[in-house]
Design a protein that fits this description.
Radius of gyration: 29 Å
Strand order of the largest sheet: 20-21-22-23-19-24-25
Number of domains: 6
CATH superfamily of the largest domain: P-loop containing nucleotide triphosphate hydrolases
CATH topology of the largest domain: Rossmann fold
CATH architecture of the largest domain: 3-Layer(aba) Sandwich
Number of strands: 29
Largest sheet: 7 strands, antiparallel
Distance between the termini: 44 Å
Helix content: 40-55%
Structural class: alpha/beta
Shape: globular
Number of helices: 31
Length: about 750
């Protein structure tokens, strides 16, 4: 019998390539993989997009069938975007002579244009290899395969357990209990990162153990800036909270969003500690619905030991379920890894020559294999080694705990705090005064902080500024700049603003900078960039010469967008401020412009009249029209306004259901299930209209409008609404995958209107 894999593969494809998908899915299933395919997995009547999002959240990896059809499929693109946000491994499989999409160009693809045994074997091998190896390059995968075929292999059997949460919730006490140690009433806070090793039983073999590297992170606010470098995907998370405190005081959703941003869809065990003092009182169902990666909610008391055995059992189960825990390594690579770890416990830094000597002793002799191996060990957190930075590479291979605790010693320095974040080189002798940080290695810790964008030079190699220790008070600034742009975040890590300050430090005007803001001089313009951590927003205001404001804004946005790109799960909304009204989403304004909309009204602030927005003028404050056309390939179409307020635009019909039928449905006093179904249908129809010719789109919009009018009546007339539904279904049947949600939701609406009787 074929061994079942843990997790499953999500298959992204165009329905025009259904036969190719079925052929590949069949082969993968024969080799033990579970494959998620929408046709097979989404039940009739289920909400399509929610089903796909849930499947992607739970998927081990995504295979995308790259073809001319999938390259123009909006559904495939949306699935890819969502998978990237979740940091899922993506395997592009080329099925015809289509170009590889630009956003997949940095991932090697697998050639399946001729679906023969060799092509299948290449795909199966790529799926078995550690994704960090596959993602590096084709050369790295070839080196891995060559080394694997030469000798025996062994599973890594190793995982990282990240323990996070607010300060003083008992993280270190929980960890000590897991390790079998007694409770210490006088336990002090974790000033850096405490790393402990624990071995659990593998379900595959009684003789096999899995090593768990447990990392306890300091919960103090100053520590949060470094989490981006140590929270990772190849992990299980314990989010520890204090049962005596409320859900809000524990900042549960903040931590869950941080984990989602840095750890993708990694599983989370939510631990309510201190239940000997108060029972856990949180919205369990609501949290698990909103964050499907919560795989368990447990209650413990580190003081009494209550719940610790259940917690250990839950960790054991989850670790055994992680798909990458048993990735194979060539035995020669495994031997080098084991010896490096042993040396790391004795020495905090190992020279490059010593590493090469270890490789030679264990028959990892060619340079490409040596570089691939050390790069992989860096990626999974066994060591730190920066091959892309000559200054840092020269220091050799490093113990991550040594580096991290050195950084934390600096960040926690009371003297540095009193000095308002200004770090003199001479202060390092006091801060890093232990024997593990010899004088010739202390400046290296500052180099690491530069690398992590935690500080910048005031005087090169002599004086530095650490933005996370700047005063919190905003200084008085005489500035009358115009609000130009905003970012709204699901969660705003403090590191976003401090990293931005580090990046733009050469542009700081008159030293005006504080912990959450900075005043810049860019050419002939001044700019004020401020973060509101509680409101989860960064706002940008620009003053100075009008004709160069856009260039100054572009320079600021470039730096922030690069930071956002480095935190894959962050995805802030981009907003354009509107005088006397709410800010508008930048993407929404771009869509309006592409649809030919020149002006539209939005509600003014409380007590004021509606504001008429000039779409092009707003957008031109951010980017020139020529740049927008270049980036988006947008074409501005002629348009006219339909009688119901919808907007009809050439072949790119964009039914503005939000302001017309959508609001009409939303405000109607009808059954909640019917309302939800109609609103979902409105969105599905709106998406479908963009793919229809103008004349047909007009008819479909009219069908939906008549359906909405009839459905919200106290006694809907079946004669009228059934005709409208038939029209929607007929139009949807002529489309590919995009039409299926309209068909399903139309039938659902019909069922609700007829009391469950659908002909």
């Amino acid at each position: 019998m074929v061994e079942k894999r843990k997790g499953y593969i999500f298959m992204a494809y165009s329905h025009k390539d259904r036969k190719k998908q079925q052929l590949l899915s069949s082969e993968l299933k024969k080799h033990g993989y579970d494959v998620w395919v929408d046709d097979e997995k989404i039940a009739f009547g289920a909400e399509w997009t929610n089903s796909i999002e849930k499947a992607l959240q739970q998927a081990t990896a995504l295979i995308v069938l790259v073809s001319e059809n999938s390259n123009v499929s909006r559904w495939v693109q949306q699935e890819l975007i969502y998978a990237e946000r979740l940091q899922k491994p993506i395997y592009p499989v080329l099925t015809d002579d289509a170009n590889i999409p630009l956003h997949l160009a940095n991932i090697q693809y697998l050639d399946y244009r001729k679906p023969n045994k060799k092509a299948l074997d290449n795909l199966l091998f790529a799926l078995q290899a550690p994704f960090e190896i596959f993602a590096k390059s084709e050369e790295a995968l070839d080196v891995y395969e060559r080394n694997l075929s030469k000798k025996q292999s062994a599973p890594i059997n190793e995982i990282k357990l990240n323990i996070v949460g607010q300060g003083s919730v008992g993280k270190i006490s929980i960890l000590r209990r897991i390790l079998g140690n007694p409770f210490n009433e006088k336990e002090t806070k974790t000033d850096g990162i405490f790393i402990a090793r624990w071995y659990i039983q593998s379900v595959n073999s009684n003789a096999e153990k899995i090593k768990v590297n447990a990392w306890d992170f300091g919960g103090q606010e100053i520590m949060h800036a470094t989490h981006q470098f140590f929270l990772s995907k190849r992990s299980l998370y314990l989010l520890v909270i204090d049962s005596r405190l409320s859900q809000e005081e524990n900042r549960i959703e903040y931590w869950l969003k941080i984990i989602r941003s840095f750890g993708g869809g990694s599983p989370v065990l939510l631990i309510g500690n201190k239940i000997d003092q108060h029972p856990l009182d949180i919205d369990r169902t609501g949290l698990q619905k909103k964050y499907p990666n919560i795989v368990g909610i447990l209650e413990t008391s580190a003081a009494t030991g209550t719940g610790i055995e259940k917690l250990k059992a839950a960790i054991t189960e989850q670790v055994n379920n992680l798909p990458h825990v048993r990735d194979l390594l060539p035995e020669s690579w495994f031997a080098v890894k084991t010896k490096l770890e042993g040396l790391g416990q004795e020495e905090n830094f190992i020279t490059q020559d010593k590493y090469l000597e270890l490789c030679t002793e264990n028959e990892v002799s060619d340079e490409t294999s040596q570089r691939t191996l050390i790069g992989f060990l860096h990626d999974i957190g066994v060591v730190l080694h920066f091959q892309d930075d000559p200054r840092l590479e020269s220091l050799g291979i490093l113990n991550p705990q040594w580096v991290t605790n050195g950084v934390y010693k600096i960040l926690n320095s009371h003297e540095l705090f009193k000095n308002k974040g200004v770090l003199e080189r001479s202060m390092l002798n006091e801060i890093l005064n232990s024997s593990e940080y010899p004088s010739n290695k202390r400046l290296f810790i500052v180099d690491m902080m530069r690398k992590f964008e935690l500080c910048y030079d005031i005087v090169p190699d002599k004086k530095f500024l650490v933005p996370d220790l700047l005063p919190k008070d905003e200084p008085d600034i005489s500035f009358n700049g115009i609000p130009a742009f905003e970012y709204a975040y699901p969660v705003l890590p403090s590191s976003v603003m401090t990293r931005f300050i580090v990046r733009v430090n050469q542009k700081i005007d008159n030293g005006i900078v504080w912990r959450t803001g900075v005043f810049l001089k860019i050419g002939k313009n001044h700019a004020l960039v401020k973060a509101d951590i509680e409101d989860k927003k960064i706002s940008i205001s620009i003053g100075g010469l009008e004709y160069t404001r856009r260039d100054a804004l572009s320079a600021i946005r470039y730096q922030l967008d690069e930071i956002h790109e480095s935190i894959k799960g962050l995805n802030p909304d981009k907003l354009v401020p509107v005088p006397e009204a709410e800010s508008q989403k930048y993407e929404f304004l771009l869509q309006l412009e592409r649809s030919g909309v020149k002006e539209f009204p939005i509600p003014g602030k409380i007590g004021s009249k509606p504001v008429i927005v000039d779409v092009s003028q707003l957008l031109s404050g951010v980017e020139s029209e020529s740049q927008r056309r270049k980036e988006q390939g947008a074409t501005i179409n002629n348009y006219y306004t339909a009688s119901d307020g919808g907007i009809i635009v050439g072949r790119d019909f964009s039914g503005n259901l939000v302001s017309g039928d959508y609001n009409k449905i939303n405000s109607a006093e009808i059954d909640s299930e019917l309302k939800d179904a109609l609103l979902q249908l409105a969105e599905a129809v709106n998406a479908m209209l963009e793919k229809l010719p103008a004349e047909e789109a007009t008819e479909v919009a009219e069908d939906f409008s008549k359906l909405a009018d009839e459905a919200i009546k106290s006694k809907p007339n079946k004669k009228w609404y059934s005709v409208s539904i038939d029209g929607l279904i007929q139009a949807a049947e002529n489309l590919d995958k995009l039409g299926e949600p309209v068909i399903d939701l139309s039938k659902k609406v019909l069922s609700l209107l007829t009391g469950g009787v659908v002909k």
